[in-house]
Amino acid sequence: MTIILYDLCGASDIRLSPYCWRTKMALAHKGLSFESRPTPFTEIPSIADGQQKTVPVIEDDGRVIRDSFDIAVYLDDVYADRPSLFGGAGGQGAARFVENWVKVSVLPALAGLIVADVHAILQDIDSAYFRESREKRFGRALEDIQAGREDRVDAFRATLEPLRQTLATQPFIGGAEASFCDYIVFGTLQWARVSSALKLLADDDPVAAWFERCLDLHGGVGRAAPAKAA
Ligand SMILES: N[C@@H](CCC(=O)N[C@@H](CS)C(=O)NCC(=O)O)C(=O)O
């Protein structure tokens, strides 16, 4: 039975969620086919069993699983005969560290650079909800959050230093091959790539080369999504 993925969708069918990208890369890594259901923010409460507050959510053979990390754990458990996302319990523990590094350091720095750009690519039905909820969260207008962002790009790049140094010894966070750890960071940068024309990484940054490698993984599922035009 085909897995259903509820995938956050902006205007012009832009699939923007950093967390849904983690799940799409995880499904592709496992070689599982899935049906992607485009989901605006304001329709999340009515998807699947009607109990959901965030996406990604998957439905697999009657089971409803939410949260990108829990979905990856589920996929490794249930489809254990397919390529592993974590490489076992130790890998899962290390991936939690990557998830929290991204949550604490990378995502907040990035959100402050692109949040108004993200608002600009949403469907009309989501526009007011996103503005209101994010302005409440940040305590400022979206445009004010993003203002002066050129001065904060270096600070954002600095949050990626652990990845940069890791790439000096290996092509992926997972080692020789990509793992769910890579998809956690990839999804975050892919969110920016599809939503904003801001140049985030220097051309000679090893993180930029790694991101290009990730875009090409699994038949280029990441690259198939168009980058936001300048
Ligand atoms: N920890 C969750 C976070 C998911 C999440 O925050 N998703 C956002 C989309 S990027 C969402 O659905 N937000 C709903 C809202 O803001 O109303 C995961 O990893 O799946």
- Evaluate the radius of gyration: 17 Å
Which sequence of SSEs, written as H and E, runs from N to C? EHEEEHHHHHHHH
Low-confidence parts: none
Could you say what the CATH architecture of the largest domain is?
Up-down Bundle
| The CATH C-level class name of the largest domain | Mainly Alpha
- Which structural class matches the secondary elements? alpha+beta
Q: What is the helix fraction of residues, given as a range?
A: 40-55%
Please provide the count of β strands: 4
CATH fold type of the largest domain: Glutathione S-transferase Yfyf (Class Pi), Chain A, domain 2
Number of helices: 9
> Which sequence of strands runs across the widest sheet?
2-1-3-4
How much beta, percentage-wise? 5-15%
Main pleated sheet: 4 strands, mixed
Distance between the termini: 40 Å
Oligomer: single chain
Number of domains: 2
Shape: globular
Q: What is the arithmetic mean of pLDDT?
A: 98
Question: Which small-molecule species are bound to the chains here?
Answer: glutathione
